[in-house]
Amino acid sequence: MFDVFNYEDIICARGSREMPWKPSFQMNVYYYLIDGLLIDSGPYSLAEEAIEFFNAHKIEQIFLSHIHEDHAGMAYWLQEKMQVPIYLHESSLEEARQEPELAKYRLDIWGRRKPFNAEPINDTIKTGSYVFDVIDSPGHYPYHKVLHEKNKGWLFSGDLLNNLKPKSVMFDENMNETILSIKKILDLDFTTVFCTHSGIRKNAKVLFQYKLNYLLELQKDIQTLRNRGFTNTEIAQQLFPGPDPIGSLSGGEFSPYYLVSTL
After folding, report:
1. Average pLDDT of the segment spanning 221-235
2. Which residue, among 111, 120, 50, has the nearest Cα to 81 in the 3D structure?
3. Residue 87 DSSP one-character state
4. Nearest to 2 by CA among 161, 11, 10
5. Beta-ladder partners of 145
6. Which residues pair with 133 in a beta bridge?
7. CA 97 to CA 222: how far, in whole Å?
8. Taking Cα atoms as reference points, which of 181, 77, 85, 179 lies closest to residue 135?
9. pLDDT at 19
10. CB 61 within 8 A of CB 85
11. How far apart, in whole angstroms, are the C-alpha atoms of residue 59 and residue 143?
């Protein structure tokens, strides 16, 4: 069942999925609907609950922060059933038209991401009452965008914030790009961040600064070890020793190596 609630003018819903590398951990998925604008569609694995939520509310347009299946998995259903425009990073439009070949663990957790047709995002997205600035924020994925409503102090961050102290990241993440994106975001005026996985956080800038400080300190430690002649693989083993259940389950798609090698 979804937990549906209101925050100011935003209709919010929350579902969750069990993470197989740590069954006691349930990863939340948040849906945000503001004045007819749905921010991210959620995964196909939560389709039953999501469809009930979608059908209960008026959806006029959809913004996808990026193409990953936990954010875009229901885009095809929304397009087919509601025939509303879906906005996505211009460099992901062709990718959206193809169904990706996903590793088994991703299919087990999030389900398929069927093909859909999206439109490129302009510099702003407007609703009847709000204007959202659209901001490039690569790092978690090369083609990732966030939404900023400066009059309300809202930031819809996709996966830019999420894990404050990552120890293992996906093969297509670039943590140096994440650092640059966080620095850009910190120049904006906002007080509340709406994260797809960690929910609504009111101490928004403090959290972004915390993550930035962590990554900068880690970058410094990595560079020190590089200067001593250690390889990225050796550095990852030194900084993040011990079992790596997510790395094993994902066949190496998640690894401390990708964190180290891109810092």
Report:
1. 98
2. 50
3. E
4. 11
5. 136
6. 124, 148
7. 39
8. 181
9. 85
10. yes
11. 24
Sorted by sequence, the CB contacts under 8 Å of residue 242 that are 6+ apart come out as none
Q: 175 by DSSP, 3-state: which?
A: helix
* Residues contacting residue 233 through CB under 8 Å, at least 6 positions apart: 257
In contact, 226 and 218? CB cutoff 8 Å: no
**pTM for the model:** 0.95
CA distances from 64 to 25, 43, 206 (A): 25, 12, 25
- Give domain 3-214's CATH superfamily: Ribonuclease Z/Hydroxyacylglutathione hydrolase-like (3.60.15.10)
Residue 4, judged by CB atoms within 10 A of its CB (0-12, 13-18, 19+), counts as middle
Q: Output the CA torsion 44→46→49→53 (10° steps).
A: -60
Instruction: Give yes or no for a contact between 69 and 112, defined as CB atoms under 8 angstroms apart.
Output: yes
pLDDT tens-digit map of 77-130: 999 999 999 999 999 999 999 999 999 999 999 999 999 999 999 999 999 999
> What tokens were used for 69?
């299946």
CA dist., res. 211 & res. 205, Å (int) = 10
DSSP helix/strand/coil, 173: coil
Spell out the domain ranges in the chain. 3-214
Alpha carbon separation from 121 to 89, 130, 182 (Å, rounded): 6, 16, 21
3-state class (DSSP) for residue 26: strand
Is residue 221 within 8 Å of 167, Cβ to Cβ?
no
CA torsion angle 200 205 206 209 (round to 10): 120
